[in-house]
């Protein structure tokens, strides 16, 4: 569990096991908070717990793709209305000691290099701030959430895969601890969700997948009334 930070203001909340798979403004909020509150979200790995430390490559042929991008939330912010901006400060991360990376046929920038091969790597992250690939080859972890976003104005379920003006699957490694993100509020309450935790990733997911992992992320929410922006923005 991430440690509580001295810089937190407002109430502190914890949210787990409230999962959905699409942005949808008809979903009831799993948690309603005040501006200035802090929430720790216990987020499953991107495939909704289908991957574990014990998973083998055979899982890749049985994967339920309808459960990809499991999102925690949504979180409603009291008083948020269309035309406002929601500021989200990324305060802290906690990981669970492991992650996974896979290569799927026909998926990712190097699809032609790998042909019809499937590969799965389960990373051990129990030693300090590194993920071990093979003995003496370790990757420094820099956690961030691949998915963060607010509900769309459009009715009905909306996809998680593309990044949009609302946020979504941004997969931006610069949105880790210390970053501040700004989301345009499109529906009452904003209805913020997050998921798709990454332990490490370069500037772009070359194979289409980072070091995916379950993460606990602590976020502070601040409502900026009557301040509108055209699309999501962030400060590192």
Characterization of the model:
This protein is mostly beta strands and 236 residues long. Helices cover 2% and strands 41% of the residues. The protein is built from 1 helix and 18 strands. The chain has one helix at residues 111-114; strands at residues 12-16, 19-20, 31-33, 38-43, 71-77, 85-95, 98-103, 119-124, 130-134, 137-140, 144-150, 163-164, 167-169, 180-184, 192-200, 211-212, 215-224, 233-235. The strands form 4 sheets. Strands 2, 3, 5, 11, 12, 13, 15 and 16 form an 8-stranded mixed sheet that branches. A 6-stranded mixed sheet has the order 1-4-17-6-14-18, with no helix packed on it. The chain is globular. Mean pLDDT is 92; it is low at 1-8.
Low-confidence stretches: 1-8
C-alpha geometry: globular
Tell me about the biggest sheet? Answer: 8 strands, mixed
User: Helix proportion of residues, in percent?
Assistant: under 10%
Structural class by SSE content: mainly beta
Radius of gyration: 18 Å
The SSE order reads: EEEEEEEHEEEEEEEEEEE
- Number of DSSP helical runs: 1
Estimate what percentage of residues fall within beta strands.
Answer: 35-45%
Beta strand count = 18
Q: Taking all residues together, what is the mean pLDDT?
A: 92
Q: What distance lies between the first and last C-alpha atoms, to the nearest angstrom?
A: 23 Å
């Amino acid at each position: 569990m991430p440690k509580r930070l001295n810089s937190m203001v407002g109430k502190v909340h914890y949210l787990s096991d409230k999962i959905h798979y699409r942005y949808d403004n008809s979903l009831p909020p799993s948690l309603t908070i005040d501006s200035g509150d802090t929430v720790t979200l216990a987020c499953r790995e991107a495939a909704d717990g289908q991957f574990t430390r014990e998973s083998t490559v055979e899982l890749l042929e049985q994967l339920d793709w309808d459960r990809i991008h499991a999102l925690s939330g949504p979180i409603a912010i009291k008083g948020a209305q269309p035309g406002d901006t929601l500021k989200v400060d990324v305060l802290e991360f906690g990981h669970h000691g492991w992650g996974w990376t896979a290569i799927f046929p026909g998926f990712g920038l190097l699809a032609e290099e790998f042909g019809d091969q499937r590969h799965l790597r389960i990373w051990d992250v129990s030693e300090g701030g590194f993920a071990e690939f093979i003995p003496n080859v370790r990757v420094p972890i820099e956690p961030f959430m691949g998915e963060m976003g607010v509900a769309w104005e459009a009715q009905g379920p909306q996809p998680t895969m593309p990044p949009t003006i609302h946020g979504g699957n941004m997969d931006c490694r610069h949105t880790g601890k210390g970053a501040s993100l700004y989301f345009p509020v499109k529906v009452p309450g904003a209805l913020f969700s997050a998921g798709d935790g990454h332990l490490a990733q370069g500037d772009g997911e070359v194979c289409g997948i980072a070091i995916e992992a379950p993460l606990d992320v602590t976020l502070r929410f601040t409502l900026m009334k009557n301040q509108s922006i055209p699309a999501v923005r962030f400060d590192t």
